[in-house]
Amino acid sequence: MYILRSVIFFSFLIQSLAFSLTINQAVVKIGNEYITDFDICIAKNFYYYKLSLNDNEIIDRLILIKAVLNDQKNSNISVSEDTITDYQESLIKDYGGLKNLEKSLSSYSLNFKQLRNYLKTYILYKMIKQNILLKKVIVKFSEIQDYYKNTYLKNQKKYNLPIKPISEIAPLIESRLRSEKASKFETVWKKEILSHYKIEYLK
Amino acid sequence: MKKIMIFLFLLFISFSLFANLPWQNCLNNKITDVKIEGSYTIQEESLLKLLSVKRGEIFSIFKVDNDIKNLLTLNKFRNIKADLTKTENGCSLIYRIIPYEFINEIRIKGLNKNTNKELYKNITTILKNNLLRKPYKINFVKDTINKIRNIIIDYGYLYPYLKYESKINDNNVCLTFYILFPKKYYIEDIIINNIDKTTRYNILERLKIGKKTLPSKKIINSLLNRLRNHLRTQGYFMNSVSYKIKQAGNGKLHLIINVNKGKQVIIKVFGIKINPTIFYSLWENVVFPPWAIEEGKNKIVLELRKKGYILPKIKIKSTEKDNKLSIIYQVDRGKRYRLGKISFTGNNSISSDFLKEKISVYLKDFYYYAYFDGSILKDILYELEYTYWKKGFKNVNIVIELKRELNKINILFKIKEGKQNIIKKVKITGASFFNPYYLRKIADIKENLPYNDEILLKWENTIKMLYYSKGFDDIRIITLIKRDNNDNINLTIQINENTRFRINEILWLGDKNISQDFFWSNILLKKGEYLDRIKLVRTRKNLEGLGVFNNIQIKVINSGDENKKNIVILTEPAKKSYLSYGFGWGERVGLRGMFEYQLHNLFGRANSYSFVLKLGKNEKRTIFSFDTPWKTSIGLKTFISLWMEEEALRSYTYNRIGITINAVKKYNDKNYLTFDFKIINTKILSLDVAESEIDRENAPYSTSSFSISYNLDRRDDPFNPSSGYLFYSSTTLAFNFLGTETQYFKILGKFQKLWRLKNDIVILNHSRWGFSWGNVPIVDRFFAGGSFSFRGISIDGLGPLDPITKSPIGGKAELLNNLEIILPTPFPIENLKIAFFYDKGNVLSEVKDIFKKSFDDAVGVGLRYKTPIGPFRIDLGWNLEKYGRRKPYVYFAIGNIF
Q1: Which of B106, B339, B407, B621 has a C-alpha 20 to 30 A away from that of B355?
Q2: What pTM value is reported for the model?
Q3: Interfacial residues of B (vs A; Cβ cutoff 8 Å)
Q4: How many CB atoms lie within 10 A of CB B603?
């Protein structure tokens, strides 16, 4: 009896929940553009599907994407169809096959052409970001030398590890210094780009 | 326990059904109904037309997302929610509009007038100005709260409590602010470390800072800045000053200021008097003292060059001991120079005359009187470098050499042009709609031109505009630049045409303050056509020209079809009535006042009614006019005016009542054709000439006339022209019509030409001619004499005079010419010029007298002072025919001869 009563109660509950649902709305206004719940779904499933990000983190990234693409509207960087295809292929692989990807797309009422448009946006943003970081983040040889002298040699001696010549180790040092500089620069760069925009949270 | 487990299990099942996408249940289902709810500003039926989701289609969340974004771009709503409901046969979709909420009420609790009257007033003013009747935005409210917090702190209430609550009812928001501050704090003591007692006393005394001072940021920053400036005057440029506040209990604070003086730099300048503050900025952040010392020298040189001391000699001596750096500049400023010759060497590709022309604007003031301001040499250098850059010389190097010649300085520009980048080849790829040869022709793309960014931009924009006019709204153009071994440029213009769009719907949203058919007659775009951006711009101009809208936005938004776009025209109605008034002075009419009232867009046809009243010592004018933008196939704007005027002139006083219909064909603002039809009834009220000299002197008489006039203005500025030309011509035929009596034929013409020469000299020549035949009443005759026609006679005094009263009777012909040369004055007063003029002309009784009568000559001098509405002129003119008269005629006027 109790179970029967519970089932009846929950079936009404289910029906009431199914009566009307808000399926989409704008979440953020950035400049004159909007980010919606649907955009968050797309980003979650096709951009950042390898990372477990919460909604707020995805919103922050989408805001940055919109700001960067707007700022660099007149740049000469463009995304080729081949690059999009490569990304699409890796998506198919990660989804476990074309059929699985198609199933996922249909639940978002998307066809492949529309997916490619979304991917193009994301890839363009990444290319622009990389281009800016390459131009702005410079590692001088004197910095590599300093690191070799003051950090590498010391550490190698301290831990009794073999010492390699600078010519061999320079690329590794350069890559390390570049990623440190890039992350510092990125923080400043993001702040600078977003400062040009009025961001309004609507939800 | 068992019951709890079953309950939790079923709860989990229910909600796990909704862990999937919220529209899951409607995938592959048909949309049974689409509605929009909640729009108060725009009709819902209009908004439905903008949606891509249609009843009967299969549900698509992608389309729903596009619809939300498209509707939000109208900027009329705060947000839009899409609500989906499962129905028997499919799903029903409702777009719920969330309008902007407005703050219509503000309440304040805690703070009251008794606490502090001024503070209360400040806070309430900020809240009213920033928030009341504005859209409710949380960020904005927070910013306002921070502003208020800072003000409260400035009043000494250091730790205020600020909070707000909002109550929303429909779209009305009531904000309640809770403002509490427990205590007012005062600074009891100020401790400044590392500073002597005298300095401390002086600074605090000057700022009137003592006990019972409020700890406001303004006061503290003022104190810190005073300290910093004082330290700078003593040579401690690299000082740093910081502070902290310590609570001393019972509402009292100690302000502790730490001073780090840094190195002391003492700068002395001998040989000239100079403001020492010019060196401050050099030393504040200096890390390399020799640089600062050298820059200090450059600053001295710049200051001296501004005054004409072009070649100063400066010796520098610097010593450092303990923490003190001492710098002495021994200056021999030398002589002052005027500008001599300008010459160039190394300019193989650009002629010296051309380069001189480019820099003449910087040098024009120095040819007559002033000592040469050497500080402009930098600007001249930039100008020359820019000139070379435009010609493709990216690596030009220009060095300035100064040579003395008595009291003049000759400037030699030594130019190393470097390699000129020439565009050797231009290739266009990706164009399929337009033939690349056609694009080259339209954009005027040529090879063997000097390369610079401006020319590239010009080409790209021309091609873009061409594509925009054909519906290619998403066109992208990328130009790839390759250099060959000779530094020549090969360009590849890559065109990505993308989609060609047609127009899906055109909607007019907003207050419908004019009739629909009248509105649509001004829209040049049609549904189904290709989207033409040029027509979009012209449509906007048409709508702006109606004068009935305040704010016009034309938005192009996506439709459900990827090859089509919707056009949405958003308008706000303009003010319906205008009132203006003023006063002025005219040569003929004396002092007068003016009042005007205009009413726009009565009956929704963008027509306007205006009433103008002008009253002066010699003039009374009343004009009622009605203008309506009748659309004809040749685009004529029409006016009807009913007017009355009364004017007292030298020879007669008259009043007239008339009706005028004019139509204007505007080619652009400075080029137009006007057609006038007038019926006028004239009454001469008083006459100072013999009745036999004129027609229709006393009985009121009527005239009906038709005239055509043409105006072409190609001057650089209509008020203060210095180059170009103006042509005006008018032909009038007065004829019998509905009982009117007067018949005559009249031609009037004007031609003004201006030449701008070197050194800012302008030559102006103005010619005027008029001929008439038939019975020309005195009111319609030609009169001349005065600052706007002939400057060698009294107002209207040129031509035939009444033998007894000596008042002018006017003529049926006139020929006038004014020649003026306008020069910069020897006085360094901006906008002031001197003019020398020669006027020649006459007014003749009959046209045939042109060959019989002589023409008067007048010469004179005047001053011109430039104002935004034309030059203010003072002219002294001598009539060469009047040998007995030595005194000049004096004229005052505003505006050019026209």
Answers
A1: B407
A2: 0.71
A3: 3, 6-7, 10-11, 13-14, 17-18, 21-25, 27, 59-65, 68-69, 72-73, 75, 78-86, 94, 137-139, 476, 478-480, 496
A4: 10
